[in-house]
Specification:
Blueprint lengths: L1 H20 L1 H21 L26 H16 L5 H4 L4 H4 L4 E6 L5 H10 L4 E3 L16 E6 L17 H4 L10 H15 L8 E8 L5 E7 L2 E7 L8 E2 L4 E2 L5
Parallel strand pairs: 2-6, 4-7
Antiparallel strand pairs: 1-3, 3-8, 4-5, 5-6
Length: about 260
């Protein structure tokens, strides 16, 4: 059986040799050279050059030398606006500040441009390198959409909420806070904006040991938003509207009228 297979193999090999050495072999050799010549054109074709571009470097403005007055902090907020949006603004030309206000050293300006949403406030934080945790999508809260005209207001320049909303004797639930007369409380956007500016200038976040309620920023089922800084990130979470804790407070706002 093995001998028969070997004889058959040797016979086929002889036939191949006859083709390669005879006239048919010359024809086959010519075809092979033609094929290889064409293939060499494909192989030697100059490859296209692919240029890899490095992403542009993001340079965060250095605001650590900002002065203490509201006027100085307004200028810093203008720098952040340019960094975040590319647009140049002059807040003192947009809003009617008094000289007494501009000299104050106890307030943080909160600026909300037209259309500035809760999502935008969070994205701006991330652009500063701040990590943010959202228990639910921040756009799910009431008042998450941007205003139809620019808004600016002032809140206390402290890492703690207003002292008259903190502690056993002053603590209030969100439901109690919203009925306090003549008080407009900062919401999620405002707190995020103030925290971003405060961090950019002082390198410190708001509420490292306390929590700020956003009494009117509520989910459809009534749960209320709140914010604080813990560990290495900002936390934007929710609680029930009747929850009440000594270290949870709120921040009253002082609106600045739009210059007409």
């Amino acid at each position: 059986m093995l001998r028969k297979a070997l004889r058959k193999y040797n016979g086929l090999r002889q036939q191949v040799d006859n083709v390669l050495l005879g006239d048919e072999g010359d024809l086959w050799e010519a075809e092979l050279k033609n094929f290889l010549a064409k293939r060499s054109c494909w192989v030697t074709e100059t490859p296209k050059r692919v240029e890899i571009l490095e992403p542009p470097e993001i340079i965060i403005p250095n605001l650590r030398t900002t002065g203490p007055t509201l006027g100085h902090w307004l200028a810093a907020r203008e720098e952040l606006h340019k960094f975040w949006t590319g647009d140049t603004i002059v807040l003192r030309d947009m809003f009617a500040f008094t000289e007494e206000q501009l000299a104050r050293t106890d307030v943080i300006p909160v600026f909300r441009p037209v259309g500035a949403t809760n999502r935008l406030a969070v994205d701006w934080k991330k652009k500063l390198g701040i990590s943010v945790y959202e228990e639910v999508d921040v756009m799910g809260y009431k008042n998450s959409g941007g205003p139809k005209k620019p808004e600016l207001y002032l809140i206390n320049r402290s890492v703690r909420p207003d002292e008259d909303t903190l502690g056993e004797g002053n603590k209030k639930s969100p439901d109690q806070l919203i009925v306090v007369p003549k008080k407009i409380w900062a919401g999620l956007y405002g707190w995020c904006d103030a925290d971003s500016l405060h961090f950019a200038i002082t390198e410190n976040h708001l509420d490292p040991e306390t929590v700020t309620w956003f009494p009117k920023d509520r989910l459809a089922d009534g749960r209320v938003a709140r914010g604080d800084w813990y560990g290495a990130r900002v936390y934007l979470c929710w609680h029930y509207s009747d929850d009440c804790y000594p270290r949870y407070g709120a921040r009253a706002t002082e609106p600045v009228p739009f210059r007409t």
